[in-house]
Amino acid sequence: MDFNAFSPDNVRFILEGFLLTLKVAFSSIILSFVLGAIVGTIRYMKVPVLSPVLGILVEILRNLPLLLIIFFTRFALPEYGIHLGPVYASIIALTLFEGAMISEIVRSGLISIDKGQIEAARSSGLSYLRTLWHIVLPQGLRRMVPPLVSQFISLLKDTSLAVVIALPELMNHSKIVIGQNSNYALPILLFAAILYFTVNYALSLLAKRLETRMV
């Protein structure tokens, strides 16, 4: 293993890429969660016209490769006058794709709540929306935590796909450093793996802590 790969300049360059990876990932996590929560709740409520339309869009996005969506936001949207840099194109692509996935997690979590509790709440005088807010959502959220965190971890790893549109993230910078010397491949890739693992493992621990508190 060539430890010359870890020169101060190379390490700084790799960490700059990793910082952008985190910025893109966490921006996408927040936006995709908001989008997924709204879409999933609307589909659960079976709003006429809107729910079926959203259902079709979700199925389309879920069954397309993320790489295709990234290419679309970066190279197809400019044909319609929408010009996005690599960072914003990546965030939008990840938000749309992961938002579709999260919407299904949210919808499944809400559906899993016993209908008897909903009927009891309605019979006690609570409106449909108050029942959803006070009874269904709190319990559904507990069941959503593990799959949501798993999806967020996947999102963080999926940021590496944006290397194809020259997003200057971790893998892009790793590739540039390796290009200096092929002997740098093993140490640099191991370093990148450790960075990914550290953040993803921290997310897993956070999820377990949240589950414990919510029980």
From TrEMBL:
<keyword id="KW-0812">Transmembrane</keyword>
<keyword id="KW-1003">Cell membrane</keyword>
<protein>
    <submittedName>
        <fullName>Amino acid ABC transporter permease</fullName>
    </submittedName>
</protein>
<keyword id="KW-0472">Membrane</keyword>
<dbReference type="InterPro" id="IPR010065">
    <property type="entry name" value="AA_ABC_transptr_permease_3TM"/>
</dbReference>
<feature type="domain" description="ABC transmembrane type-1">
    <location>
        <begin position="18"/>
        <end position="207"/>
    </location>
</feature>
<feature type="transmembrane region" description="Helical">
    <location>
        <begin position="20"/>
        <end position="42"/>
    </location>
</feature>
<dbReference type="InterPro" id="IPR035906">
    <property type="entry name" value="MetI-like_sf"/>
</dbReference>
<feature type="transmembrane region" description="Helical">
    <location>
        <begin position="188"/>
        <end position="207"/>
    </location>
</feature>
<comment type="similarity">
    <text>Belongs to the binding-protein-dependent transport system permease family.</text>
</comment>
<feature type="transmembrane region" description="Helical">
    <location>
        <begin position="54"/>
        <end position="75"/>
    </location>
</feature>
<dbReference type="InterPro" id="IPR043429">
    <property type="entry name" value="ArtM/GltK/GlnP/TcyL/YhdX-like"/>
</dbReference>
<dbReference type="InterPro" id="IPR000515">
    <property type="entry name" value="MetI-like"/>
</dbReference>
<dbReference type="Pfam" id="PF00528">
    <property type="entry name" value="BPD_transp_1"/>
</dbReference>
<keyword id="KW-0813">Transport</keyword>
<feature type="transmembrane region" description="Helical">
    <location>
        <begin position="87"/>
        <end position="106"/>
    </location>
</feature>
<keyword id="KW-1133">Transmembrane helix</keyword>
